[in-house]
Amino acid sequence: MIQQKPEADKKRSGGGEYIWLSLIGDEHLLLDKAGSRVVRVYLTQRSFDDSVLGTGSLVDLVDIRDDTITDQARPELITARDFFFYDKKPLSMRRLRKSLRSVSLSTSSPPLWRHGLSTSYSLFDGSTPSVCVVHLENKVAIFKDGRDNKDHIGFKWNGVFQSYPLSETLRSKLKVEVVDRMISKKQIKLLLGFYPSFLVLAYTTPEEGYCKKLAVALL
To answer: Which branch of life, at top level (predicted)?
Structure first.
């Protein structure tokens, strides 16, 4: 059910419009249209089920907390009480991709500032991003990696092949099971329902001293 915005909530909300992209753990990844950045949002008292969320849904933040715990590995983290859902249709894929283009990663930087599948928590100092948008200008492959038996997405970035495991949220959206190495446009469209132009990549919270990189959304 779409919530109408009561007068009290107008005063307590973030006062902006955010585009819902995906989940990583208990955190929502949103594109902040006003700030032209991707943020991570933890909700303390959410009033909805995740099934109401769809890529491109337009939301606002209710009761942003000033005492958000600062995490050197997640400088984009915001704590709020709940979402307000705008009475609007989700953005079309075309409009969503147009918005993502403005925040996509420069090709001069490795995805999430370092090569590899994980980064030691001790290396984070709050000055580097924990989430980024990658413009997939070259062909992609989706395959089961024999090293960890997980589904990965791979692509070339500055001439170097990169691959990252799919998050559980992203895997749940696959139309069919990943078999071997799926590289043709026909295979990728069968798997996703479309051919992706953008990838949202994010670090997990620390596990045994390391933050892992996960592919959390394809658009």
So the answer is: Bacteria
What is the Cα–Cα distance from 64 to 153, expressed in whole angstroms?
Answer: 34
* Assigned token pair, 179: 């078999």
Q: What is the mean pLDDT of each run of 10 residues along the chain (219 residues)?
A: 38 68 95 89 90 90 81 94 90 94 87 93 95 93 90 93 95 91 93 97 96 97
The pTM of this model reads 0.89
- Please tell me the distance from the alpha carbon of residue 133 to that of residue 135, in angstroms, as a whole number: 7
Burial of 144 (0-12, 13-18, 19+ CB in 10 A): middle
Which is nearest to 44 in space by CA: 15, 71, 64? 64
> How buried is residue 194: exposed, middle or buried, by Cβ count under 10 Å (0-12/13-18/19+)?
exposed
CA distance 85 to 167: 25
Phi, then psi, of 17 in degrees rounded to 5: -120, 125
As assigned by CATH, the class of the 7-92 domain is mainly beta
Q: CB within 8 A of 145, min separation 6: which ones?
A: 151, 152, 163, 165
Predicted pLDDT of residue 68: 66
**36, 157, 154, 164: which is closest to 108 by C-alpha?**
157
Q: How many CA atoms lie within 13 A of 109 on its CB side?
A: 13
Give the separation between CA 84 and CA 3, rounded to whole angstroms.
7
> What separation in angstroms does the CA of 60 have from each of 91, 184, 189, 208?
15, 38, 32, 34
The number of residues making up the chain comes to 219
